[in-house]
Amino acid sequence: MKLYFLALYNTVNEMAYETLKDHGVDIRQYLIKAWADLCKAFLQEAKWLYNKETSTFMEYFESGWLSSSGCVIL
């Protein structure tokens, strides 16, 4: 798990550095928030699966758009 974290950490920092260098905008905080939100959505879905719960449509809708990686891809 540590290896995956370090790879993601380095990738986010590299992307933020390139954007800062090319455009003068520091996007690191936004990238970190997007990845944190994605991980929280994955965790929520894992909890539902582990507890054998069926989420309501609204619960899934709130979590599903994040877990489909939409924010991170954009």
UniProtKB/TrEMBL annotation:
<dbReference type="GO" id="GO:0000287">
    <property type="term" value="F:magnesium ion binding"/>
</dbReference>
<dbReference type="GO" id="GO:0010333">
    <property type="term" value="F:terpene synthase activity"/>
</dbReference>
<dbReference type="InterPro" id="IPR005630">
    <property type="entry name" value="Terpene_synthase_metal-bd"/>
</dbReference>
<dbReference type="GO" id="GO:0016114">
    <property type="term" value="P:terpenoid biosynthetic process"/>
</dbReference>
<dbReference type="InterPro" id="IPR008949">
    <property type="entry name" value="Isoprenoid_synthase_dom_sf"/>
</dbReference>
<dbReference type="InterPro" id="IPR050148">
    <property type="entry name" value="Terpene_synthase-like"/>
</dbReference>
<dbReference type="Pfam" id="PF03936">
    <property type="entry name" value="Terpene_synth_C"/>
</dbReference>
<keyword id="KW-0479">Metal-binding</keyword>
<keyword id="KW-0460">Magnesium</keyword>
<protein>
    <submittedName>
        <fullName>Terpene synthase, metal-binding domain</fullName>
    </submittedName>
</protein>
<feature type="domain" description="Terpene synthase metal-binding">
    <location>
        <begin position="1"/>
        <end position="73"/>
    </location>
</feature>
